[in-house]
C-alpha cells in the first residue's frame, strides 16, 4: 500500500535521511523506533511533503506521489497524526473534525464519516461541543487521530501518539490502532514507547542516524539484546 524507496532528505546542508526504504501493507502496523533525533519525524514529514526529499520515491497503492503537495497526498489517502497532537485548542471538538472535510476525496471508495469516527472514539461524541484546549491529553490525542480519520485515509502515519499519556490511555490508543489495521488500514507508527510499539505492531524498524539498521518481528526485536542496547539504549 505504502512504498518508500531510498529516501534522502536534507535540512539545508544537514543530511538527515540516508536512503530509507520501507513498505507498509494493507492491514499492517509497522513501528519505527529509535533514539531522539535519528530522523523518525523527518521520515513521516517526507512522506507527506512537509519535508522535501532530495531523492527517492514514495508510492501509494502503486501510484507515485513523490513531491506532490501535502493536500493532494491527503486526498489520495495518507493522513498524519502529528507529534504533540496540534489540535486547534480554541475550537470545539466538532469544529476540529469539520476542518479536514475539504480533503475528503470523491474519487476513492471512502466510507469514513463523522459517525464512524465517533464509533471509534465515543468519548469525543460526548465532548463534541467542548473546546479542544479543555480536553485531557488522552482526549486530545483521540481528537488528533479522529481528525486524521475523517479524511478517510488508506494509510495512517502516527508520530509518537503515546507521548505524555498515562499507561491506561496508551493501552486504549494501542487497541484503536490495532482495530484500524484489522479494518484494512496500513499504519506507520513512530514511537519512543518500546512496549507499546511492540504490542501494537506486526513488524518493527529501528533507525539510527537517518538509516534503518534493523527490521524484524516485535518478538525478534524483544529478544535481540544487542540491537536494543546499541540503538535504543536499553
Ligand atoms: N526543520 C529543521 N531544520 C533543521 N534541522 C532539523 C529540522 N527538524 C529536525 N531537524 C534535525 O533533524 C534531525 C532529525 O530530527 P527528527 O525530528 O526527524 O528526529 P526524531 O527521530 O523524530 O526525534 P524525536 O524523537 O526527538 O522527535 C535532528 O538532528 C534534528 O535536530
UniProtKB/TrEMBL annotation:
Family stated for the protein in its record: Belongs to the ABC transporter superfamily.
GO MF annotation list: ATP binding; ATP hydrolysis activity; branched-chain amino acid transmembrane transporter activity
Domain ABC transporter, residue spans: 2-234
PROSITE patterns, per database record: ABC_TRANSPORTER_1, ABC_TRANSPORTER_2
Gene3D superfamilies named among the record's database cross-references: P-loop containing nucleotide triphosphate hydrolases
InterPro entries according to UniProt: AAA+_ATPase, ABC_transporter-like_ATP-bd, ABC_transporter-like_CS, BCAA_Transport_ATP-bd_LivF, P-loop_NTPase
Lineage of source species: Bacteria, Pseudomonadati, Thermodesulfobacteriota, Desulfomonilia, Desulfomonilales
Single GO biological process annotation from the record: L-amino acid transport
Keyword ATP-binding tagged: yes
Pfam families (UniProt xref): ABC_tran
Keyword annotations of the record: Amino-acid transport, ATP-binding, Nucleotide-binding, Transport
Taxonomic superkingdom: Bacteria
Listed name of the protein: Amino acid/amide ABC transporter ATP-binding protein 2, HAAT family
